[in-house]
Design goal:
The protein is α+β, with helices and mostly antiparallel strands. It has a single domain (about 5-140), classed as Winged helix-like DNA-binding domain superfamily/Winged helix DNA-binding domain (Arc Repressor Mutant, subunit A). Helix content is about 35%, strand content about 15%. It has five helices and six strands, in the order αααβααβββββ. It has helices at about 5-10, 15-20, 30-40, 45-55, 65-75, and strands spanning about 45, 80-85, 90, 100-105, 110, 135-140. The mean pLDDT is about 90.
């Protein structure tokens, strides 16, 4: 059977496999959320954005379940949590090491192109510790009118 025919017959097979690979049971809610999150290009979402998308697709999932699932996906390594400030958290489907712009007016994250930031010097690691990753979020605002 051709691959594209197989995918049309089993639209959730890829996300079922993705969830099982990280040890998460593919519940109805997780499948619905995973399909919305992972079928398509990489993107940044908040729980509220995802809740709106789920509602528009006529899928009934509570906001609390969405928060729980996003954190489960993050803990399993499927998402990357990006904390912009104390009241704003995004979840990134691109889990590779990369940095972000936070567009303040639009309220969204955008990836900074790979290689655009260079670290020539970092402080020494604390004794007995090692760096695990570096987070960079550059807040971008409108230029003031003159």
């Amino acid at each position: 059977m051709p691959e594209n025919t197989k995918d049309k017959e089993r639209p959730f097979s890829r996300v079922v496999q993705k969830l099982r690979q990280v040890g998460l049971r593919p519940t109805r809610q997780r499948l619905a959320l995973a399909k919305i999150l992972f079928d398509g290009p990489c993107r940044h979402v908040t729980a509220e954005i995802l809740h709106d998308e789920v509602s528009q697709a006529n899928i009934s999932v509570s906001l609390a379940t969405i928060y729980n699932s996003l954190h489960q996906f993050t803990n399993a390594g499927l998402l990357r949590e990006v904390v912009v400030d104390s009241g704003r958290t995004y979840f990134d489907t691109n889990i590779s090491d990369h940095y972000h712009y936070f567009m303040e007016k639009e309220g969204c994250l955008k990836d900074i192109p790979r290689g655009a930031i260079n670290f020539d010097m970092l402080p020494d690691e604390p004794e007995g510790k090692k760096f695990s990753r570096i987070e960079v979020i550059i807040h971008v605002t409108e230029e003031s009118q003159k």
